[in-house]
Amino acid sequence: MARFAANLTYLFTELPMLQRFAAARRAGFHGVEILFPYDLAVKELAQAAQAAGVEFVLMNTPPPNWAGGPRGFAAEPGNESRFRGDFDRALRFGRALGIKHLHVMAGKAQGGLARRCFVENLKWACARDSHVSLTIEPMNRNDMPGYFLDSFDLAAEILDEVGAPNLGLQFDVYHAQMIHRDALSVWQRHAPRVRHIQVSDWPNRHEPRQGDIDFAELFHSIDAAGYRGWISAEYTPRSSTEAGLRWLRSA
User: Fold this and answer.
1) In the chain, which end has fewer C-beta atoms inside a 10 angstrom radius, N or C?
2) Rounded distance between C-alpha atoms, residue 107 and residue 143, angstroms
């Protein structure tokens, strides 16, 4: 069976960040992810995870000032040196936390030059540390206007072109539904490439089983495919986090 993680950027936000680890474990999660943990001390984050008994599953790179800041640089021609410097910083941070996956964000770009830039940066990043698992995640252009990686089919082509064993697909159910209007078929096409899953319902990005996606069928398909990675809850709770966790207890 897959294991469930809590995205602490979205969940338990009524608590200070370092208290969210224990709250996630009490709620039944065994892993956590934070999109951009760089404003907190590595030592404090590691201690909070260890004390709560949860695994640190994923974070994003690069480390920007996220409020109104860029969404990555990996596919932006001319920003190669910035991407690589930021990646090295994120890699050091992730190693200290024992991160399972490091998500490489593409940024805003388009066209063949951006594609070549993305591929070359990913090849460089994969070679930087062959023991670190990297992911790429398609994102819809309504929420992320201008984002280069805006299709799961494009992501599959990029993964084949890079051809690195430590690079895989990050399958976000909400984005799959927004982009292709059928998250289940996206999963069925690309399941062998998936390293990490994030779940929220559609169209409002709340708790699973609260919208239009058939999560019973999707979870069954994920299990039937033999997926043994993490499934992370990345959604905005309708009210409090605790009040909306019925889906987890029935998953």
Assistant:
1) N
2) 13
In whole angstroms, give the CA distance from residue 164 to residue 126: 7
Amino acid at site 165: P
**Where in the sequence numbering do the catalytic residues fall?**
137, 234
CATH of domain 3-249: 3.20.20.150
Residue 33 parent element (H or E):
strand 31-33
Structure-token pair, residue 162: 């890079």
Cα separation of 217 and 223, whole Å? 10
Compute the C-alpha angle 58/121/45, nearest 5°: 25
Q: List the structure tokens of 145.
A: 């206007």
Tens-digit pLDDT string for the chain (251 aa):
689 999 999 999 999 999 999 999 999 999 999 999 988 999 999 999 999 999 999 999 976 555 556 778 999 999 999 999 999 999 999 999 999 999 999 999 999 999 999 999 999 999 999 999 999 999 999 999 999 999 999 999 999 999 999 999 999 999 999 999 999 999 999 999 999 999 999 999 999 988 889 999 999 999 999 999 999 999 999 999 999 999 998 87
Residue 163: CB atoms within 10 Å: 11
One-letter amino acid for residue 43 of the chain: K
Quick check: 176 and 187 in contact, CB under 8 A? Answer: yes
DSSP state of 35: S
